[in-house]
Amino acid sequence: MDAGISPIDLFLNASPSVKMVFLILGFLSVVSWVIIVQRWLVLSSARKGVTSFENRFWSGMDLSQLYKEGSVMQKENLQIVGMENIFRAGFKEFMRLRQQGMADGEAIMEGAQRAMRVAYSREEEKLEKHLPFLATVGSVSPYIGLFGTVIGIMNAFLGLASQAQATLQVVAPGIAEALFATAIGLFAAIPAVVAYNRYSSTLDGVTSSYITFSDEFSSILHRQIHST
Amino acid sequence: MNKAFNTMVVFNGYPLSVVVAIVIHLLILGLLFYLQSTSNAETLELVQPTIVKALLIDENPQLAERRRLERAEMQRISEQRRRQEQEEAERRAEAERQRAEEERQRQEAEREQTALVERERQRQLELEREERQRQEQEDERRRQEEITAEQRRSEEQRRQQQEQDRLAQQAAAEAEAAEAARNEFELVQSATGLIQQLLQESWSRPPSARNGMRAVLQISMLPTGELIDVRITQSSGDAAFDRSAERAVYSAEPFSELQSLPIRVFNENFRSLTLTFEPQDLLN
């Protein structure tokens, strides 16, 4: 063995099973990073969407005006995110039921609330997508790395058995290779766990603000029904 | 929502995420390569574990002396052979020259004589017979001389041949002796290694042992490998250390492997043995 062993050498000299472990872990790491970045984009846009829409909503603007602006945006093929979708679903249902001449205020309210609940759960689903994958990577890849380590050390000792004299130079490369598998496992797991924790707390914040908003909005609708 | 952000998250932002993830991994790989190339100079150093080593130095003056003598003998023989060859060549060249000279003289004499006979045939007819007789005698003498020279030469050659044979035999005998010595040397080496291992196993070093301490023990053994006597010829300065070395020798005894050695080898190398105890690789 040369003076220095680079991680690349370790990978190239590894036994097939350990190589397999390396490949799996590399793949998991790449995929989890894809999800980390994509979720970051989605969640940050959702969080920004919450503040900007709340600003517009509480600016005293007429609700039908707000709805029309949203329709224009939809026509321009701009994405409507999160809270605005809930608002639009509830408002649309409310207007439709009223125009149908439904006299029962409670029924109208119930219809609007149901529409908002559906929109809410759709939004929540959008935000939650792929997060369980991050959790899985975070908890499983150390085990995969450990598996590679055990296999690698097993190989090292099997190689040792065929040697007449057990020197450090004989065992060392095998053990280094084996430990490298654990290192890769941790390398894949750590960002996934950090991102999962971070994103689930962000998700909690966003969904709770959705719930608050839909409650507030239904109270506004309630007022409208009873004021007329 | 601003437009730039919307275009950034086109297709839910997946293409961008893939690109970012791959770039991150490539960066990390590149970093690994870079660190590797920069840290190549300072190679990993294996830290040797702490091992107490009983060093047994085989001080065998007889063997060393004999090896030195053998070497000198070899050199002397080759020198001698070279000198002999040179002398022989000189001698051969000399003989050649003498023969050529004789030949020339003989021819000259014959020519002179025939001319003399031609010129003074009438005048010396009566002398002719006498002359011929004399000449014959001369010839005879010369022939005899030649024969004796020939005999001497062949004798010389045979003698040289014998000498060469003798030298070759001597060289063969010497080679055989060297071979035997080498075998013996191997035997001695392996026995030494065994003793060393036994001592290493049985030596428990006292806590007062320090690097650089050195105890030299002289032990005497029977051909059965049993110990007769242990003497400390050079103390390490630490009584506990000396005692531990002594104890190691006593607990390693008997060195029953020595029984298998030829008695001559034993007598020359192991009847009295010098052991050196040195702790090495201590951390203090």
Please tell me about this protein's structure.
The complex is a heterodimer of chains A (228) and B (284). Chain A is mostly helical. The longest helix of chain A has 60 residues. Chain A contains 7 helices and no strands. Chain B has a 3-stranded antiparallel β-sheet with strand order 2-1-3. By secondary structure, chain B is mostly helical. Chain B starts with a helix and ends in a 7-residue tail after the last strand. Chain B has a domain of 37 residues. The chains are: A mainly alpha (228), B mainly alpha (284). The interface between A and B is medium-sized, with 26 and 25 residues.
Q: What are the SSEs and their pairings?
A:
The complex is a heterodimer of chains A (228) and B (284).
Chain A lengths: L6 H7 L2 H42 L5 H13 L7 H17 L5 H24 L2 H31 L6 H60 L1
Helix pairs in contact in A: 1-7, 2-6, 2-7, 3-4, 4-5, 4-7, 5-7, 6-7
Chain B lengths: L2 H6 L5 H26 L21 H59 L5 H78 L12 E7 L5 E8 L4 H14 L10 H7 L2 E6 L7
Antiparallel strand pairs in B: 1-2, 1-3
Helix pairs in contact in B: 3-4, 4-5
Short description:
The complex is a heterodimer of chains A (228) and B (284). Chain A is mainly alpha-helical and 228 residues long.
Give me the strand/helix succession of chain B: HHHHEEHHE
Instruction: Supply the number of helical segments of chain B.
Output: 6
User: Any idea how many domains of chain A?
Assistant: 1
Oligomeric form of this entry?
heterodimer
SSE string of chain A, helix = H, strand = E?
Answer: HHHHHHH
N-to-C span of chain A? 87 Å
The coarse overall form of chain A would be: rod-shaped
Q: Give me the secondary-structure category of chain A.
A: mainly alpha
Helix content of chain A: over 70%
CA-CA gap between termini of chain B: 71 Å
